[in-house]
Design brief:
Blueprint: E1 16-19, E2 22-24, E3 29-37, E4 39-42, E5 44-50, E6 56-62, H1 66-69, E7 72-79, E8 82-88, E9 96-98, E10 102-111, E11 118-131, E12 134-135, E13 139-141, E14 143-147
Parallel strand pairs: 1-13, 2-14
Antiparallel strand pairs: 1-3, 3-10, 4-9, 5-8, 5-11, 6-10, 7-8, 11-12, 11-14
């Protein structure tokens, strides 16, 4: 019997949005897939992806599903760490149906945090996926980005770092004749 390949959507039973998770090093870029399940006859959607801006920076969306790309996907960043995604049908294009567990797009982030940091990537703001009868997505499943490895931030030492009691410290500098 061949091994069974599991997908993030295997246990879903209602219209849903999902964002995947990833781990990388400081300075690397990761692209999380935003997936849909039971997204039929979609005319528009909007939602935010919210993350910790001290750990990751949103760069761009890539690999946009062709059904979405032939219409209109707009992104903006109303506040640091919040990226808003807006989709609407272009012109007279018909409503679209995204195959179950197919990618809507990938959201790419640069990791700026330190080893051991992690951030949730949560659906937020107004979360709507609309068809001819209104909003119909019942569930969202959030992702995470974890920083493992990478450059350790430099430690800046001052002359006072190891003092344990009240002290007077005189510092000196060397210079050549004529320097100020």
């Amino acid at each position: 019997v061949p091994p069974t390949t599991m997908t993030p959507c295997d246990n879903l039973t209602e219209p849903s949005l999902l964002v995947t998770s990833d781990t990388a090093s400081t300075g690397d870029t990761v692209c999380l897939s935003v997936l849909g399940f039971m997204l039929e006859d979609v005319e528009s959607f909007q939602f935010d992806l919210v993350s910790d801006p001290t750990i990751v920076t949103f760069i761009e969306e890539i690999n946009v599903n062709p059904l979405i790309a032939m219409n209109s996907l707009t992104t903006n960043e109303p506040t640091p760490g919040t990226v808003r995604f807006l989709f609407g049908l272009g012109g007279m294009n018909p409503a679209i149906t995204i195959a179950d567990c197919d990618t809507l797009f990938q959201a790419c982030y640069e990791l700026i945090g330190f080893d051991g940091n992690d951030t949730n990537v949560d659906f937020g703001g107004t979360i709507e996926v609309n068809n001819g009868t209104g909003s119909f997505v019942d569930s969202t499943y959030n992702g995470t980005i974890r920083v493992e490895g990478g450059v350790v931030p430099p430690t800046t030492m001052t002359p006072c770092d190891n003092l344990t009691e009240p002290s007077l410290l005189v510092t000196s500098d060397t210079a050549s004749t004529g320097d100020t």
